[in-house]
Q: What sequence folds into this?
């Protein structure tokens, strides 16, 4: 895929665009050329999008796949409304968590039978961290936690540590490999930092943890669906992720839990709900864990959210994650280039790494007046989001194009320069 | 309400209906008379139901309220599809868990601000049991658990006890008051037994626990929406429940957690996810719990399931739970009478208590050949469900009538007698 988004010319020099957007014409033409050559461009039509908006918040809530409303009308009207209780069996509701897990699996490099969908990311972090302490065994009393993580992972890890008697060591993800030692039970690390968009070294960190006899637990919220993860290939032990960002599952759609096949028979959940029982309808007074990934289930699955997610995953049919990654890098490169060319000097500072190996699929710009800038951007049809001190723009390769990136940078420059809309 | 369903004549004697359904004509007339006088009869039109089916499984999955499909089309098509990320604020998604909690509150006798919707019942049992051990304080190392409970409560309580260092004592709910002592941290009890339909003594059990200095945690899955609960009036400490049975929220719709106002400032959740933080968008590295019921939240709420539930709760507008209870008792009385009159002697044995004070809103019939009988009942349009050794029939007063009850008993008698369908 490396040639697909090859540039027709050397990138425009990063001109300080103090007033006149000097490179605009050339960059607009370049964007149009890149869009015309983009092999993923046709996927945009699968989504409910309007041309008035540049939607750069798919890293927070993915756009609606256009076929989902009809599917949900059938789920609600016929499966619930007419078949009612029979749908648990006849409509396949009961097995949705593991079936959807197997749909997510190829997107994160996992063989079938290792992922179940359900619960929130926070709840899955709790399951994964507690289960990992149990897999690590006695004598390992430390949990390493990514100090820059999305806060919920840290809060939940702290609670898990309090309940299991472990000690939390918060540190920069880059320092995890060097910090792992014979007291380390596990490390919980985000694959991509939600603020900066920095991609952490999953293969190297996982290998270093294993060398120290510890387990690697990865949070894939900001990487799944945006870049190759390679859970099996890199020997990850446990992983969690959400599905409402790059997987477009809908607001608050179910999260998922990956338990590597080699750990499943010793996976010991702190939330052993009835749907993870070996005989859930036997209603036995004692718990006996089911075999396989379903051991990560807890309570009755939330079917409406679950089946919207399942339908949403259809957009991945025939799409390779390597192709998505190639476009993602080309898009974020191009956006950074447009920002450098257009935006008044000194008003924003990219904090997303320039190196491809360290970049996820978003661009974060430090900006002093971010709380004023983002609402105005949204008013002008460029939807990103705000994190403390930051403008955050997510690039979802299935539905964002190069002309979108150029327009977003141009509108950002207008807002920062105090120019009116075009 | 006590006179509303008064019988026109003394109940028919319990004739052994070995072949000819001797009392059928009289009971059908009585059913029609009771339906005509039923002040709740008009609510049936709010649901998507067909007259070919007698749906007696609303205690497992409530019927679809007829207005929910249109509401969900708007949630999916406009709120997600058009407003996208803006809906977290503009469509009120963010506050849905506590807003829905306040809608459930009057149905279970709670003042506003004490309930949040979200997660599964199992996950909420974990929060409630762990938090109750922390509220109970040091020196109380026993957790009493209803031995006849729906299994997930027992499995989760066992896991909580393992993690907090408590000891589980499983016993009959009737024995909980006598067993509570100065080592008891809490008791976890089902308000209505899922198998037998027995209603347990919530006021008396709660008072006895309090007298021993222990907390009362109630599971309301089989009582909320079917009968008055009186959480505040009886001083319950914590409670959980599902919303897909008598509350008609949809398959696997979010459960809820009640934390009595007096405990909220010391409620210490084992699942302190970011949405329960005092400043969730501050993205602070340290956890600070929000005030109030929202402290029971965990991760990002599953909006599609959540908003279907919210819409479904509209069917309760103008309905008093006392009226529902009066009809529920009249319905289950009448069904038991029809069963006694029609069903061949010795083929089924009601295990649901005859005393009103001990009865929920379902009738369970022990039946040796239940696994053969229920599928045939369903084939003939009478939908109940099967639990080990039992035929279970739920009576949902908002949409089940007396003629439904009579027909169900008549079809049951036909199936057991080997008679063909009418």
A:
């Amino acid at each position: 895929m490396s040639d697909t988004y090859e540039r027709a010319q050397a990138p425009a020099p990063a001109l300080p665009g103090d007033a006149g957007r000097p490179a605009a014409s050339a960059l607009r033409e370049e964007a149009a050329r890149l869009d015309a050559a983009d092999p993923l461009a046709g996927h945009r039509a699968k989504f409910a999008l309007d041309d008035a908006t540049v939607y750069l918040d798919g890293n927070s809530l993915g756009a609606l796949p256009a076929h989902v409303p009809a599917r949900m009308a059938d789920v609600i009207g016929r499966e619930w409304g007419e078949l009612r209780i029979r749908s648990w069996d006849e409509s396949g509701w009961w097995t949705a968590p593991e079936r959807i897990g197997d749909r997510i699996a190829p997107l994160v490099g996992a063989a079938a039978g290792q992922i179940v969908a359900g619960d929130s990311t926070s709840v899955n972090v709790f399951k994964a961290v507690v289960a990992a302490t149990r897999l690590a065994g006695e004598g390992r009393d430390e949990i390493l936690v990514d100090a820059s993580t999305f806060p919920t992972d840290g809060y939940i890890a702290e609670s898990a540590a309090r309940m299991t008697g472990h000690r939390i060591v918060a540190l920069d993800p880059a320092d995890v490999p060097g910090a792992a030692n014979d007291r380390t039970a596990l490390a919980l690390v985000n694959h991509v930092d939600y603020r900066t968009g920095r991609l952490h070294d999953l293969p190297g960190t996982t290998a270093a943890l294993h060398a120290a006899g510890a387990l690697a637990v990865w949070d894939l919220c900001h990487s799944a669906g945006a870049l190759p993860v390679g859970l099996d290939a890199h020997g990850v032990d446990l992983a969690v992720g959400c599905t409402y960002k790059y997987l477009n599952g809908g607001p608050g759609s179910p999260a998922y839990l990956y338990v590597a096949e080699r750990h499943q028979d010793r996976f010991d959940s702190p939330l052993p709900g009835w749907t993870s029982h070996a005989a859930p309808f036997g209603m036995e007074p004692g718990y006996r864990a089911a075999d396989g990934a379903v051991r990560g289930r807890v309570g009755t699955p939330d079917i409406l959210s679950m089946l919207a997610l399942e339908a949403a995953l259809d957009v991945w049919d025939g799409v390779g994650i390597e192709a998505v990654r190639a476009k993602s890098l080309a898009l974020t490169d191009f956006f950074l280039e447009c920002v450098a060319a257009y935006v008044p000097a000194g008003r924003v500072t990219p904090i997303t790494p320039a190196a491809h190996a360290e970049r996820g699929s978003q661009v974060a710009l430090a900006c002093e007046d971010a709380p004023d800038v983002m609402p105005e951007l949204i008013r002008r049809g460029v939807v990103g989001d705000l994190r403390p001190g930051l403008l955050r723009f997510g690039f979802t390769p299935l539905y964002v194009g190069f002309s979108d990136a150029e327009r977003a940078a141009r509108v950002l420059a207008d807002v920062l320069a105090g120019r009116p809309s075009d």
